[in-house]
Amino acid sequence: MPHHNFIITPHSIHTPTAIVHTEYDPTTLDPVPSPAWTRFVCISDTHARSFDVPPGDVLLHSGDLTSRGTVAEFRKTVDWLCGLPHKVKIIIAGNHDITLHEGWYDKNPLRWHRDVGKQDRAAILQLLKGPRAVASGLVYLESEEHVFQVKDGGRTWSVYGSPWSPYFCNWAFNYKPEDGPALIAKFPKTDILLTHGPAHHILDRTNHGDLPGCPALRARLPDLRPRIHVAGHIHEGRGAYVHAWTGTGGEGEGRGEGEGKEGEGEAPRVQNDNWYRDSDSDSDLDEDDEDEGDGEEDEHADEAEDEGEREGENELGVTPLPHPPPPTPVDRTVFVNAATFPSGRHAWRGVRVKGLHACHGVLVEDREERMKVPFGGPGFQAVVVDLLD
Ligand SMILES: [Zn+2]
C-alpha cells in the first residue's frame, strides 16, 4: 500500500485569552503557553468512528456519538472515549443518537431498528454514566449543567449541554422553530456551552448554501457569552471563530466569509469557512480592528503617564488622584463547529503518494492526487482551544 501524506496547512487564531488550532501537525502542535491555560479538545459528529485526537485537559463532544443509536455503536464510542487521556470528557447526544430521546424513540423504535430490534436505553445509559464512564471522567449531559475542575486547586469550569437542534426530518431531539426561544431561554450562563446544532449564521452553512442554525440561540448569545461554544451537526460548516464582545456589542477577531462589524448587542455573523486566515493583516476588517485597539491602548498609556507625574508631585503636598480603573477585560467567545465527519468541498484534498509509480510507462517518484479525508483527518481534525484560566 502506498503511504498517503495529506498536505497540512497549519492554522491558528491567537488572542490574549484564547488560542485556537484548527489545522495542525499533531506531532508539532504547540503546547499551552503556560500552566495558567487549560486545553480543550473539541470533537463532534463522530458517528461511531474513532481516530487520533491530541491530548489535553478536557475533551468536549457536541453530539452524534453514533449513526443510529444502537447499543453496539454506543459501546464502540464509549470504549474509544474512555481510553482517551483527557481528565474530563463532556459529551452530549445529537439527532442521530435516537435511543437517548426518551419517549420519542419508544413511539416507533422499529422505524429505525427493524433489523436489530428495539434497543435498550438503560444499557446505553449504563455505558454513558456507569462506573467505568465515571472512572474515566466521562460526563454525559442532557439539557443539564455540570461544574468541574481539572487542576488541583485550580479554577472550576461550568458547562451546559443540550442535544437539541432545529427540526429536520423528524430526527431525535428536534424542535420546531416556534419552540426554540422557550427551550433556549432555559440555558444558564456558563463558561462552556455545548449544543448539537450551531447558532444561525455561525459556522452553519450547508453545501446548498442554507444557514439552518438556530436563530433563537443566536439571539441569546449576547446574554450567555460563554468562553467557548461548541456545536457540530452541519458537518460541512466545520471551523472556528473568536468573537470579542466589547461593551454591549461585539467585534470579530479572525476573519470569516461574510463577516462584518456588528451592531450593539448582536451576535456575530460568521458563515462557515474553515479556510479563512485571520492572521492576514491586509484585510479591511483587521486594519479597522487594529486601529481601534491601538487607540484604546494609547489612551491608557497616557493615563498611566499622567499618574506617574502626579505621584512625582506627591512630596509637594498634592494628594494623588485615584488610580484609573484597569481596562475592562474583553469577553471573548470561541465558536467551534467541531464536526469530524468529512463533508462538503473540504472533504477531498491533495496527498503526496510516496514511492515509485509507473506513469505512462515511465517510473516517477512521489506524486500528488486528491483523496477523501478520513474521519478526524486534515480539515476535520479535533479543534484545539486553549483558554487562559
Ligand atoms: Zn452528524
TrEMBL record:
Gene3D superfamilies in alphabetical order: 3.60.21.10
Pfam families: Metallophos
Feature: compositional bias, Basic and acidic residues: 252-267
Superkingdom assignment: Eukaryota
Domain Calcineurin-like phosphoesterase residues, every copy: 39-236
GO MF annotation: an example: hydrolase activity
Compositionally biased tracts (Acidic residues): 281-314
Residue ranges, annotated region (Disordered): 243-328
Protein name according to UniProt: Metallophosphoesterase domain-containing protein 1
